[in-house]
Amino acid sequence: xxxxxxxPSPTGSLHAGNIRTALVNWLFARQQQGxxxxxxxxxxxxxxxxxxxxxxxxxxxxxxxxxxxRYSQSRRFALYDAALARLAAAGRAYRAYxxxxxxxxxxRVQAGQGLPPVYDRAALALTxxxxxxxxxxxxxxHWRFRLDTAAPVAWHDLVRGAAHVxxxxxxxxxxxxxxxTWLYMLPSVVDDIDMGVTTVVRGEDHVTNSGVQLQxxxxxxxxxxxLAHLPLLAGTDAALSKRTGSEGVAAWRDAGIEPAAVxxxxxxLGTGQPxxxxxxxxLIAGFDFAAFGRATVRFDPAELAALxxxxxxxLTFAAVADRLPAGMTAAAWEAVRGNLSTVAEAAExxxxxxxxxxxxxxxxxxxFLADARDRLAVLSWTLGxxxxxxxxxxxxxxxxxxxxxxPLRRALTARxxxxxxxxxxxxxxxDAALARLxxARLAAAxxxLYIDAVPPEVR
Length: 459
Ligand code: GLU
Known about the structure:
The strands form five sheets. Strands 1-2-3 form a three-stranded parallel β-sheet. By secondary structure, the chain is mainly alpha-helical. It is elongated and about 110 Å long. The protein has helices at 16-31, 50-63, 77-89, 100-112, 128-136, 185-194, 207-219, 249-254, 259-268, 280-286, 301-313, 317-320, 330-336, 346-354, 366-377, 385-397, 401-413, 421-428, 430-453, and strands spanning 3-6, 35-40, 69-72, 93-96, 142-145, 153-157, 161-165, 174-176, 199-203, 226-230, 233-234, 297-298. Among the domains are: 317-353, no CATH class; 355-453, Arc Repressor Mutant, subunit A, CATH 1.10.10. The structure holds glutamic acid (GLU). Glutamic acid binds next to loops. Residues 7-9, 41, 184, 188, 202, 206 line the site of glutamic acid.
């Protein structure tokens, strides 16, 4: 069975880049009818917080990304201890004592000799007596994983194709600090083994880590997972890191972005597939690692907003009813949704339907509005009333196009643009429509009096 995991460090809130990583893990797990795990990578307890971890849960809930299991690394230290002991027994982990200053000095010497800043493994030469000496002085070791530098580590990346990392160019990574705290690298492998993770999907900033971690899987006697490294999103991962606060769920929620629009957008951003409203079934069925390009992708909030508007236009009344103003009907939602950028904007149009409105009209339309009112008053009130009414007015007055429709739209909605009047008029209702036409005619007459009374240069 396919098992994926999303493994954020709770050092801030999620941003578009790691939300996409979560989404891709979820899509693949759902497509394969596998499991999607949330793993909170909180080994760095100084920078992690429960508030951030709960925020990640809340964000995933809002995004509609349900997970099948949830773990926190801070409760799993015993497993990491055991794994380190095994690596040490097998000669793949060793104790070292260099201070940051000593390591820095080594690197400067190497730079002076034109050598890469790779740890020289001096600690491998320490004897048990040396270790005892450090212990007697109260100096604790940090632990390094001993890389096998004989050959490059190669794998078939589900996104990048043939991939490899040369361990000879890397320092043996520190896996545990002298104070006993864990760094990311080994706990992640231990958990991926323990949780049966079959596919690791993450950003391409982890490619080098993957080379190291594949050796850790082997050293712990485990089969490696499949690996997929997604290109980073520009404007999020790099320019706007999660610590400086970039676009994420809070900003999207405030802007009226629908979770379904976020899913449809991030599922296909950077793939050859069209970015258009799509339900989860379509996103899951169409998911394909091979569709992702290799290039960094720009995340443009304006494109997300555009997809959001298209998504809103397709939402059913049932899907939004609990977010609409009290009394707003299915017919009203269907009349206005095509004009909305966000669901919240429906309230403005419902206000236009229910009133009150400030009447606006042109001086030249006094007679037309009077005529329009009288003709509407005698029509039977059907769903086709707008068509019937405007056809009669056109025949009687010779007006057409804008001259015919704009005074009516203004009188009935106090706006120049908006949803189809044929749908709005039945919602406004007969009595309110007649009252608005009366008010508009009076406003037009006032305007005419004013124009007569006040010379153009002082108007
Ligand atoms: N905690 C790591 C991060 O947030 C997880 C990387 C991984 O998926 O293994 O980058």
